[in-house]
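**Tokenised fold:**
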Amino acid sequence: MSNPLPFPGAFSGAELDEAILKVRTTLLQGVIPAANGNVNGPSLSFASETNSGLYRAGAGDVRLSILGHDQTTWTATATKHSRQVQFTDGYRAGPGMSFVNDATSGLYRNAANDVRLSINSTDILCMGFVTASGATNAPSLGLGKFPERGGLHLLVNNSAATGTGIQLENNDPTDGCATGFSIRCTTTGVGGGSMAEIAKFNVRIDVHDHATRTSHLDFAFTEAGTTKFIQFIGVGGFRTVRSDSGALQVQGIAGELLLSTGSANQDVRISPHGTGNIVHDVGKRLRIATGTGARAGDATLVAGTVTVANTTVTANTKVITSRKTSGGTLGFLVYSVSAGVSFTITSSSATDTSVVSYWLIEVS
């Protein structure tokens, strides 16, 4: 039998007494010192497997060795694993990797190729691969919901009328053009009608340097094999909406399209490219609203003249006239404008009592 005590060789009587006293003192203190050992021969090992167990690698460094290989290292500042660490799958309300003070929050494996982050028993982040819609092992990332068709899916609360689905904010205080970007859309009619699905759809946003104020916002989709897009461009003081080819169609939801400026006294401009024309389709009507300040209407001459109050006229107003019904002695018609007050239509015949139609346009 080898000598387990720190006295080599045979024992003398005095040495044996000293050894017994040392063992008694150690047992009373509850401390049983062992040799340091090493990775191939841990000091605390097993009779049938002497290269597996615990050993001391250095000051404040205790390690677990399995078959002569380090598995786990404990130090005063950290616990390190040298091999793969596996956890139970868990579930949404009890993640396999959770916290002592929050057992319903953490990571869990929902299914094959489907790992999720749960917070308070609610899926927050879903990650994995899917095989659907012709895609094999398509990378998938979802916030709040697993994207069953691959790609990125964000599920957000849309109960608030002003809620923002996606929001990216530029938080750089040195950037004079820090505007951020947000998207909000609905599928159930909250704040708008439901959205029809488009097979292929892209959104591209390019923001250039703030010195030129140049930016692009593109919406592109594929239809019948042809890629089309609508592009919003900001250059200097202009903002442009254009399509890559063919006609750009803007349609109102209820059949009515409203074009309006964001501030008072600003023009709505229609400018064809090059030598293009502004075309009003055959069979379509042009309607001008009537009422106070109307830009079209009828007026009846009295003794060859009529004055129409209209505060919208300016020095650049042109009055286009035509005789609607004849009355009295006819003459040729002329007009004059009092800017901001009225316009007057006069016949060369003082007995002209015709009904005259007029249309007011502005020239610059």
Q: What stands out?
A: Helices lie at 13-29. The chain has a mean pLDDT of 75. The chain has one helix and 27 strands. Residues 177 and 260 are 25 Å apart (CA to CA).
